[in-house]
Amino acid sequence: MTDTPFARPADVMALPRLGGLALSPDGRRLVTSVAALAPDRKTWRTALWEVDPTGRRDARQLTRSAPGESAPVFTPDGTLLFTSARPDPDAGKDAGEPKPALWALAAEGGEARLVLGRKNGIGGITVAADSGDVVVLASTTPGAEDDEADAARRDARKDAGVTAILHESYPVRYWDHDLGPTVPHAFWVGQLPVEGTAPDWRDLTPDAGPPNGAGSDVALSPDGRWLARAEEVADPRASRRGRLVVTDTASGETRVLVDDPAADVGSPAWSPDSARLVCTRESETTQAEPPDYTLLLVDVGSGAVTDLTEGFDRWPSAPQFDAEGGAVYFLADDDGRHAVFRVVEGGAPVRLTRDGAYSDLQVARDGSALYALRSAFDHPAAPVRLDPQATDQQPEPLPNPGTIAALPGTLRELRATAADGVEVQSWLVLPEGASADSPAPLLLWIHGGPLMSWNSWSWRWLPWVMAAQGYAVLLPNPALSQGFGQEFVRRGWGSWGGAPYTDLMAATDAAVELPEVDGSRTAAMGGSFGGYMANWVATQTDRFDAIVTHASLWHLDGFIGATDAAFYWEKEFGDPLTEPARYEQNSPHRYADAITTPVLVIHGDKDYRVPIGEGLRLWYDLQKRGVPSKFLYFPDENHWVLTPGNATVWYETVLAFLAEHVHGRDWSRPELL
Predict the structure, then answer these.
(1) How many CB atoms are located within 10 Å of the residue 488 CB?
(2) What value, to the nearest 5°, has the Cα angle with vertex 270 and ends 134 and 112?
(3) Residue extent(s) of CATH 3.40.50.1820 domains in the chain
(4) Helix axis angle, 499-512 relative to 529-540, nearest 10°?
(5) Does domain 409-663 have CATH number 3.10.20.740?
(6) What is the C-alpha to C-alpha distance for residues 673 and 54, in angstroms, rounded to an integer?
(7) In sequence order, what E strands does 542-628 have?
(8) pLDDT at 196
(9) What global pTM score does this model have?
(10) What band does 93 get if pLDDT is binned at 50, 70 and 90?
(11) Where is this region: Disordered (predicted)?
């Protein structure tokens, strides 16, 4: 077998991982963040690397510190800004623990210098592309007028032993953290202070309140005059939605640009002349209809709004203007890919890329090129250069520190026909050596979301670890998956146990017909919605030898009442007290008596999206029925498993469970468990 690092999960943790891009104004420097295993092998450490946009020179490391660096962005003069919790070299011995602050690295190199900091850290920045003005996001306590007052209020709580938070509006949690008592505000700093001077902080959002304050979806116009942001507002039945507002950075006056009661509006991006914005519009869901997305072109002066992608049967995201402001680039899932598109007002979107999944799109200011991170199931994220207008592009990666030499198998695309005649697309990873003479056992791996699709490399859900152990891994995109049209999503809307399940079975049937796949040895697994589907599969069929369910939904009524954004899911399923039908039809717990397949349950206690109660009840329901089962519990992990040690034992436990029930081997408990 080819020598790859995927045979041992611990070796996978040591592979470098790229994320984020920043392009200098002159187009000569491309910077990315690279996460690598820290010396203690317990955490990842992020550093900034420079990639040659021409592809002629090797990448070089720019920063190095124990806390790491992230969120790179360039100023108009080529200075590289980044955030880091590295200590201030000029701070005294009583400075306390460093907090995330803004650092600057001059274009000519040298040592980075601290340019902006607050006693309790900063959360992010946005920079005006032409003027170089800066707006900083930082959380502060209610009523605190400045950094000193904020620090005093925090200290008073700490000294009094108070950790309580009083909520007066929904929600109270988000993914893995509690909301409040602080909320983010947007502070005007203007020009970065020269060394030895203090910045003049001015709160542009003094009325920002709980639960999410000024938010994080902000953009400063190129001329520095306007701050655009998606402002959350309350809706009936404890719901929330986003509207688009702009703030005059000189006066602090805020006005609403787009406020659509039937939609969420966000992801604002500015035209080069600071006169227009492009943003996303996500329609409000109902029990009858899933969301739909489009791009809005907004004139800042008049407030006139134009639908830029009307009739486009895909979901656009991450829009950006081209260098001249005459066209907009965006990303969208399309047929198992996450592609780059270009659209002009009045025209139809044109797809620029062939295969792969793109992110972090950067537009060269002279219009000569686009840059992005490209990944696929057979390639981790790597920087690439794109032509701004050519179609069917398949760019080669630029030299970078995250290249992987070989994989333990091959990737192919598979298509099946569902029960209702609809085509279901899948990706299939075949392990090295799989053949008609030596077919591989099949692992059905179901994606989460549910409104997403399998289309890109993921370090958390990495099929090559399984392929290295000889498994064929099927990655289907069933009903509810995005990128196949609105009707494809609608097929599974409010009926999670219907078309999504039959699509998965159709894809599995197509896979086991291949001579390289052994249909007599199979397992199914998934996380989040994929965990829900794994549970549903366990209640509907005994065709699989093992089920692995991570962060999964088990009791839909209980889940919707306890998750961090209950209003979102209730729009699809209805009020469980007055409209129980969809809960009764689709909740796996109602069919627990049908489960005979061995189940591995995995859950993190800090998971607020799918709270731990789902995993606990599933585990109890399996145990009291005598179903062969195990429960892998992570007290300090969230919806994902993010630390290297825990991620390693996650893979080790899953592989041991599959080995026992798919291959019939004796159970081998992972050493550190």
Answers:
(1) 24
(2) 30
(3) 409-663
(4) 80
(5) no
(6) 48
(7) 546-550, 599-604
(8) 72
(9) 0.96
(10) low
(11) 58-80
